[in-house]
């Protein structure tokens, strides 16, 4: 249940805090006082979108925060699904910055709006006046049936099967649409593939061949210069190595006279060894340099082929050619195996459709099983609400699979005896819509483990004894759910465990909306004003007191 609500810097609200009662809370106030503003703020907690126009002070951010007690409501799974910390107290916060940027948090963990909606939909159900319009839509009527049937798991499995079928069907359809073009391109792609395959491309071969060709084309000069380099190091007449031998001999002699020259001797000996090794390697490299015109020509031909292929296919290197060859191989292979691929894709799509039909039929049967109970329960409640001749027929038709199943649900309604039930949107008046919606919310409340239900003037178009019965129904619902009811009817206002009054405060330079919890005497006066106007008579005050004293009278259950 909602244990605390904070609204800060929103619309006409500077700062508002509310600590609702566990059961039935009544919210009243004049039109335009700010009741709908408070509901709009709660809508932000439900994931509705907002912008900077909601800021009371455009230089400060807006904060909406709700604290919910969720112990015993069996909603831990959704926290696991969304990887959120779960505790018996859940804090949901929404912030709208001065730039219009929105942030949402669940138990201080940042979440996106989709996650926020998933979580808060398990915490609150808000009935707005717009819901009465929605009641005329088949989609909303189907949601009512699903809620009554408690078929969430079946619906979830069906949606997974539906998505799987759409994916598999999409793959098959895509293959079909591409098959003709793929076959047309096959000859050309196969020619290119065979050409690249015949080239026997090897990674990094171009760089290696270019380096080898460069050596072959300059073999004479390389051989000559290696010979000169070797001669400088080691030859019969005069060389660096001969000079270094002399250096070693002299250092050997003086190191015998003093140890301080030993390190110089060692360095000279190391240098002599290194130069002999270097001379040997230069000699070996010189021997390895061949003047081979035939090999050079072979390499030129190979490189010319690689350059031509790169130019032809607009790539920069052999790696690009190999990547193209591999891509062409896939395309060619795909066409060669196209019939098998199509057959496999079709088999997978058919199997997914068969599974979808099974899931859809199972879901449909569950829905069908609750249609008559819904008709019976709502019919009985409508009689309680002063519509003894009203009848509701829930009609179901099956068809092609859709994201919500294979069923189309239609609520057919008649308020009068002898009149055939017709589509709701064609026959129900405002007051009839309100009573029907109240009956629906009443029967659904027992089917959902939902902490808080908010009614925004669900009593529109009713009065008198019917309003009293609607108030009694809210009291019954409040035994298992926290109810917050915004109302203009004194019959319903008198049923609340707590009564909050919303008003405009004009005492400062800028009008603000405020809310206060009424004492018993203040409730008497407010209800009396709802009965008899701003200056209630003694009889109106007496009537208000009697309404409040009768709160403890037995309710429907």
Please provide a brief summary of the model.
It holds the Pfam family SMC_N. The chain has 557 residues and is an alpha/beta fold.
What form results from the Cα inertia axes? elongated
Strand order of the largest sheet: 2-1-4-5-6-7
Percentage of residues in strands:
15-25%
Main beta sheet: strand number and arrangement? 6 strands, antiparallel
Number of strands: 15
The average pLDDT score comes to 88
Second-tier CATH architecture of one domain: 3-Layer(aba) Sandwich
Work out the radius of gyration.
Answer: 43 Å
Low-pLDDT runs: none
CATH fold topology of one domain: Rossmann fold
Measured as a percent range, the helix fraction is 55-70%
CATH class of one domain reads Alpha Beta
How far apart are the first and last residues' alpha carbons, in Å?
22 Å
What would you call the structural class? alpha/beta
Total of DSSP H or I helical runs spanning 4+ residues: 19
At the fourth level of CATH, the homologous superfamily of one domain is P-loop containing nucleotide triphosphate hydrolases
Describe this structure in words.
There is one protein chain. The protein has 557 residues and is an alpha/beta fold. Among the domains are: 1-129 and 454-516, Rossmann fold (3-Layer(aba) Sandwich); 181-337, no CATH class; 519-556, no CATH class. The chain has 19 helices and 15 strands. It has helices at 35-45, 76-81, 113-120, 129-134, 138-149, 152-198, 205-217, 219-233, 240-257, 262-288, 293-313, 318-336, 338-384, 424-427, 430-445, 464-477, 490-493, 520-532, 538-549; strands at 2-10, 13-18, 24-28, 62-69, 89-96, 102-106, 109-111, 124-127, 391-402, 405-414, 422-423, 452-456, 482-486, 498-505, 512-517. The strands form three sheets. The chain has a six-stranded antiparallel sheet with strand order 2-1-4-5-6-7, covered by helices on one side. A six-stranded mixed sheet has the order 8-12-13-3-14-15. It has a three-stranded antiparallel sheet with strand order 9-10-11. The chain is elongated.
């Amino acid at each position: 249940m909602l244990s605390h609500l904070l609204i800060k810097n929103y619309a006409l609200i500077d700062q508002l805090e509310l600590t609702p009662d566990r059961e039935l809370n009544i919210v009243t106030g004049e039109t335009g006082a700010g009741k709908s503003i408070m509901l709009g703020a709660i809508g932000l907690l439900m994931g509705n979108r907002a912008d900077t126009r909601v800021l009371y002070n455009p230089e400060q951010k807006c904060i909406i925060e709700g604290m919910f007690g969720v112990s015993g409501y069996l909603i831990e799974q959704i926290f696991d699904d969304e990887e959120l910390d779960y505790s018996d107290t859940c804090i949901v916060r929404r912030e709208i910055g001065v730039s219009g940027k929105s942030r949402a948090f669940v138990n201080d963990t940042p979440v996106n709006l989709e996650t926020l909606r998933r979580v808060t939909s398990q915490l609150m159900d808000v009935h707005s006046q717009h819901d009465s319009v929605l009641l005329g839509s088949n989609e909303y009527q189907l949601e009512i049936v699903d809620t009554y049937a408690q078929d969430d798991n079946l619906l979830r499995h069906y949606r997974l099967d539906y998505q799987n079928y759409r994916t598999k069907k999409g793959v098959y359809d895509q293959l079909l649409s591409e098959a003709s073009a793929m076959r047309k391109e096959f000859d050309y792609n196969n020619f290119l593939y065979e050409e690249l395959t015949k080239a026997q491309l090897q990674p990094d071969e171009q760089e290696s061949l270019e380096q080898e060709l460069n050596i072959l084309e300059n073999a004479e000069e390389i051989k000559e210069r290696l010979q000169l380099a070797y001669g400088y190091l080691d030859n019969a007449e005069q060389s660096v190595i001969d000079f270094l031998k002399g250096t070693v001999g002299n250092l050997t002699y003086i190191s015998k006279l003093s140890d301080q020259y030993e390190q110089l001797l060692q360095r000279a000996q190391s240098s002599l060894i290194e130069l002999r090794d270097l001379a040997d390697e230069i000699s070996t490299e010189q021997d390895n340099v061949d003047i081979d015109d035939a090999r050079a020509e072979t390499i030129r031909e190979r490189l010319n082929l690689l350059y031509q292929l790169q130019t032809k296919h607009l790539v920069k290197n052999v790696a690009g050619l190999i990547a193209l060859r591999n891509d062409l191989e896939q395309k060619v292979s795909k066409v060669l195996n196209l019939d098998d691929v199509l057959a496999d894709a079709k088999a997978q799509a058919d199997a997914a459709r068969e599974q979808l039909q099974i899931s859809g039929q199972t879901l449909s049967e569950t829905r069908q099983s609750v249609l008559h109970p819904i008709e019976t329960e709502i019919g009985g409640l409508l009689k309680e609400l002063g519509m003894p001749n009203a009848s509701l027929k829930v009609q179901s038709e099956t068809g092609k699979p859709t994201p919500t199943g294979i069923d189309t649900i239609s609520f057919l309604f008649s308020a009068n005896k002898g009149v055939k039930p017709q589509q709701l949107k064609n026959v129900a008046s405002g007051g009839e819509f309100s009573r029907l919606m109240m009956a629906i919310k009443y029967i659904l409340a027992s089917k959902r483990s939902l902490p808080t239900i908010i009614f925004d003037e669900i009593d529109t178009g009713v009065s008198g004894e019917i309003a009293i019965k609607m108030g009694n129904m809210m009291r019954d619902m409040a035994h298992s759910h926290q109810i917050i009811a915004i109302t203009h009817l004194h019959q319903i206002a008198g049923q609340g465990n707590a009564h909050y009054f919303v008003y405009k405060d004009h005492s400062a330079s800028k009008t603000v909306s405020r809310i206060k919890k009424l004492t018993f005497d203040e409730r008497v006066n407010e209800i009396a004003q709802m009965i008899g106007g701003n200056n209630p008579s003694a009889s109106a005050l007496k009537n208000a007191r009697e309404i409040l004293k009768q709160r403890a009278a037995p309710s429907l259950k």
